[in-house]
Design goal:
8-stranded mixed β-sheet, 10 strands, alpha+beta, 244 residues, 22% strand, 8 helices, NADH Oxidase
Length: 244
């Protein structure tokens, strides 16, 4: 009995070791996640995976003042914004604010808490996807594509001249799975909630932005390298305004 147990134990070890060896051979290498200094300028960012600085929950500007000051600002200074500022904007747009049961709540309301909205950030050195639950950026495409995105948006130069651009897309199928065709309407409404959060947070930070809806959907998808089920709804250039 003892010999049988010893044999089975040894056999289990050999099998386990073999599985680990096979996994080490075939598993993809883990992508390194980088935590940059909050003050780093967005034009210097080139890493593949970036942990964003923790957002703040207090500011010197009241919500009433931000609403009163809100403007569509298309002209920007050449100075790039910081990673800390970009982090705050992305959190205001789609950041996690709490949890109820199995649902993680975000800064913008969503029909059925289905969250069809996806955010992409076009930086001078690549396209990044925002991951709200981890509050980080994941690079999906390299290169400075601001001119290409501007061309896809009928030549609107503020896209090219902005420090960065946030592209709001929606996966309609997420809301349609519960609400049918009406789910498309709910997703579009949600994009409006998200964009207003970006507007108000930009004002609070002394930044400028504008909603852009005039563009070719397919062209924008190709520039960003995003799936066809990610429908672009808004492009929002972001930078320090030339005039206030």
């Amino acid at each position: 009995m003892y010999r049988k147990r010893k044999f089975l134990t040894g056999l289990a070890f050999i099998i386990s070791f073999g599985v680990l060896v096979n996994l080490s051979v075939y598993a993809e290498p883990l992508k390194k996640v980088i935590q940059l200094e909050p003050a780093v300028k967005v034009d210097q960012i080139k890493e593949d995976n970036i942990v964003l600085p923790k957002p703040r929950l207090k500011s010197n500007l009241s919500i009433e003042e931000a609403i009163a000051r809100r403007r569509s600002r298309r002209l920007y200074k050449k100075e790039p914004i910081t990673l800390k500022e970009l982090s705050q904007i992305l959190w205001a747009a789609q950041g996690i604010t709490g949890q109820v049961g199995g649902f993680k709540l975000r800064t913008a309301p969503s029909a059925g808490a289905l969250y069809p909205i996806e955010l992409y950030v076009l930086l001078p050195k690549g396209v990044y996807h925002y991951l709200p639950e981890e509050h980080k950026l994941e690079k999906i495409k390299g290169g400075d594509l601001r001119s290409d995105l501007a061309e896809a948006a009928l030549g609107q130069q503020w896209i090219r001249e902005a420090s960065c651009n946030i592209i709001i897309t929606a996966v309609y199928e997420r809301t349609m799975a519960k609400y049918g065709k009406r789910g498309i309407k709910y997703a579009i409404l949600e994009a409006g909630h998200v964009s207003e959060n970006i507007y108000l947070q930009a004002e609070s930070l002394g930044l400028g932005t504008v909603n852009i809806g005039a563009f070719g959907d397919v062209q924008v998808q190709k520039v960003l390298g995003i799936p066809k089920d990610n429908r672009p709804l808004y492009i929002m250039p972001l930078g320090y305004p030339l005039h206030r």
